[in-house]
Amino acid sequence: MSLLRVAVIGAGAWGTALAGLLAERGHEAVLWAYEADLCARMARSRENDLYLPGARLHAGLRFTADLAEAASAGQDLLLSVMPSHVVRAVWRRLAPSLHPEALVASATKGIEEGTLLLPTQVIAECLQGAGAAPRPLVAFSGPSFAREAAERKPTAVAAASEEEGAAAAVQAAFAGSCVRVYTGPDPIGTQLGGALKNVVALAAGIADGLSLGHNARAALIVRGLAEMSRLGGAMGGRPGTFAGLAGLGDLVLTCTGDLSRNRTVGMRLGKGEKLPDILASMAAVAEGVHTAPAAVGLARRHGAELPICEQVHAVLFEGKDPREAVKELMARPLKAERV
Question: To which CATH superfamily is domain 5-139 assigned?
Answer without folding.
Answer: NAD(P)-binding Rossmann-like Domain (3.40.50.720)
